[in-house]
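S., here's the first fold you wanted:
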Amino acid sequence: MVRGKGCALFDASGKEFLDFTSGIAVNCLGHADEGVARVIAEQARTLTHTSNLYHTEPGATLARKLTATSFADRVFFCNSGTEANEGALKFARKYAKTRAQALGKNAGDAAWETVSFENGFHGRTFGALSLTWKEGYRAPFAPGLPGNTFTPYGDLEKARQVIVKGRTCAVFVEPVQGEGGIYPADAEFLRGLRAICDEADALLVYDEVQCGLGRTGKLWGHQLIKDAEPDMMSVAKPLANGLPIGAVLMKEKVAAVMAAGDHGSTFAGGPLVCAVANEVFDRVSDPAFLANVTERGNELKSSLTEKLAGHPRLREVRGAGLLVGVQFDCPTAPLVAACRARGLLTITAGKGDILRLVPPLIVSSAQVQKATDIVKECAFEALR
C-alpha cells in the first residue's frame, strides 16, 4: 500500500481498495484525514517529545477528556493495547498487595492470580499473552506468566467458581470480543461479573482496545449496558487514528496505590500523539458522529443478512456498531482473498471461520452497500 484517502487504499500498482479493515479497527477517521494531518503538522513545529518525566498540555487535556466521559478518575498513557493490559496487570497486583497490607496481612499473601475468558484476546507481550485464549498464540512461547485461569465467555456460574477471594486480583474481559469472533456480551453477564468481582474484592478490567472509542456506536463499548462499570479499562487502537498510543483508565482507588516510578514509559503520552488523540476524541465523541456509527452498523448487518440469505454455509451475522462478524461453517480465508481481488479489504476472526468487517467510522451508506455487494458475490463463489 502506498497511499489512502478516507475509506480507500491504493497499492503500488494504482489499484484502489475499499478498506473494511481500517488498520485492524484503528483508522477510525479513515486515511489521510485533513484534520489529523493539520494537527500533526502544527504540533510537530511546537513540541514532539519530552518523555513522561514531564506533563504537557496535549496530554493533560486528553486525560481530562477521557476521565470526564468515563467511569475513571485517572489515566496512565502508554503506546499500544498490549502495553495497556500489561500496565493493568501491574496495577492490579499492586492494588491487591496494598489491600492485603491494609488488612494486616503480609504482601506475599496477597491475591495475584487473574481470570480471563475463552476466545478473548489481550495482546502478545508475555503478561497480555498469558491472558489471551488462542493456544496458537501462546504455545510457541510457553511457559507464560503463571496464575491465569480461562473460563467460558458469558457463563456466570463458571466464572463464579474461578474468581476466588484472596486468590484472584483481577478479571479481564472484552465487552465485545473482537479477535475471538465478534461476540457482544449481554447485560446479565457484565453486571454479574461486576457483582462477583465486588464479592471477591477483585478488580474488573475491561479491554476496550478494539470495541472502545465509538466502534460500537457508544463512546465506550460497555456503555451499551448500564450498571456494569469496571475498575480499569484498557484503550488504544483508534485513539490517535494510526499513531501509536494506549491508555489505562482507572478509578482513584487503583491509582492511589501507585507511586512515582512504579511504572513508566519513555514514549508514552507524548505531545504529538496526544495532540492527534485530542482531535480524534473530539470528533468521535460527538453524539451525531456516534449516531451515524450506529446507523451504518445496523445497515451493514441488515444488508449482509439480506444479501447472504440462502447461503448454505452461513451461520450468523452479528456485532455491535461497526464491529461486525459473519460466521460460516468453513474457513473464510478464500472469501477474504476473493474480496481483495474484487477491491474490498476484510480480515478474519475467531477460528478463521468468521469474516470481520471493521471499516473506518466515517464509512458512508454507499460504501456499505458496495462492500456487501462484493461480499455477496464472493461468498457464493468462494465458499461452496
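And the second, which I think is the more interesting of the pair:
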Amino acid sequence: MHVQRPQGPRADFPSEAFAMTQSLKGKTAIITGSNSGIGLGVAHELARAGADVVINSFTDREEDHKLAADLGKEHGVTARYVKADLSKGDEARGLIREVGRCDILVNNAGIQHVAPIEEFPVEKWDAIIAIMLSAAYHTTAEALPMMREAGWGRVVNIASAHGLTASPYKSAYVSAKHGLVGMTKVVALETAKEPITANAICPGYVKTPLVEAQIPDTAKKYNMSEEEVIEKVILDRQPSKEFATTGQLGQTAVFLCSPAADQITGTTISVDGGWTAL
C-alpha cells in the first residue's frame, strides 16, 4: 500500500533545524540561473546556512535586484544579483570575475527543448549545450583559482536524472547533463588532493512554478484530473509519485558543502524518488 507523505511547505526536513547543524558563514556562493525554481531554492538554503549569495539570470530587471535584497534580508546575509547571459562564454566567466570571490559554485542554469533528433533545431542544440554544459566549464575554470587561493571550495553541479539515463526527444538536454556529470568527475580528480570537492546533484521531477504551470494544460490534453496527470504522466518514471522540492535540493547542496562531505567528491547524488533505480 502506498502511504502518501505529507505535502506542502513543511514537507521538507525543517530548514531552520537543518541550518542549525551547518554553518557556511563567511563563504560566498554563486548560483547560476537562480532567480526562480531550483536555483532560487538552492540560494535560499545556502543563505539560511550563513553563506553570502549571488543569484543570476540573463535579465536585469528591478525585480531581480529586489529578489536578491529580500533574500539577504530574510536570512541575514549579503545577497546580490548579477546579470550574465550564460550562453556566452565571456559573460559566464565575467560573472565570476565581477563577484571576485567564489567559495561555492552552483552551476544550475538550464533550458529545455523537445524534438526528434532529425528535427532538432540547430540553434536550440547550440543554446542548450552552451548554457548547460559550456557555461559550467567557463564558470568552473574561473572559480577554481579563487577556491585554491582561499584554501577551500565546493563545486555543485545541478545535473539531472537525465545525466544518468535518457528519454526520447531530449537529445540536447540529455547530452548536456551527461556531459556535466562527466565534467564533475574530471574536476574532482583534478582537485582530489586539495580541500576542494566537485559533485553533481541529479534531480528527478521537481515542483517548481514552471512545472506547476504546466499541470492544468497537460490535464486538459489527456482529459485527466490534475491529480491523475501528476501521477500517470508527469511522474510516470518517478516511483515515489511525488515531486522533489527545491528546498530538498538546496539542503542537499548545503550537505555537500559541510564537513560531513569532505570526502565526497566526483560522484552524483540522485534526488529522484527512485527514478534511476529502475
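Why I say that: The radius of gyration is 18 Å. Residues 1-11 have pLDDT under 50 and may be disordered.

Talk tomorrow,
H.
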